[in-house]
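Lab channel / #folding
Pinned by the channel admin:
"Please post every new chain as: sequence first, then the structure tokens as a reply. Keep commentary short and put observations after the output so the thread stays searchable."

First post following the new format, from NK:
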Amino acid sequence: MIREVVIDIETKKSFEDVGGHEHVDKLGVSVAGAYFYEDNSYHAFEEHEMPLFEERLGRCDRIIGFNINHFDIPVLLPYFHGEWINEIPRLDLLQEVAKKLGHRISLDSLASATLNAKKSGNGLQALAWYKEGKIDLIKKYCLDDVRITKELYEYGKKNQKLFYTSYFKTEKLAVVAEWNDVIPRTGGGVAMGFQGRLL
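Reply from TO:
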């Protein structure tokens, strides 16, 4: 079985709070959401549960997400033991689509045109919910984004294309989706060098 994981994270702080995009590692995690193909399950992890999230990611064959290379992974790194996560193959849907289009595009644009679905919130709302202590709302929103990303990944894998709306939202356009198959990693996990474990 291929142990792929779809992830999305929400943060405690904004870029404005930490002094700009160059300080992405200081944003902090409020909630990390994940879908595990291994057991067909969704999970939301709070900040104090990052060791469990790290352990589960350490066993996967590929991490899938939207803008994970420039956002999610850098935000997560301070919580992990070393940079072992860079040894795990990743599929960043935003990066793959941007290669084809020559520009970035929003998750909402892809979701609405491809899946006829809409995001249930936005990052600014999630930041406000964190300040208000509404962690359950953040979890729901985060897992909604995980579900949308998962469905886009599966649609692209099956149909070799995704759809998005034009800048003026007057037409639906297609972009080629070429997701490479992932090869299961040998050894069952990444040696993270803590507590003597091989995860």
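NK: The helical segments are 15-18, 50-57, 68-76, 93-101, 107-115, 123-131, 135-159.
TO: also worth noting, The radius of gyration is 17 Å.
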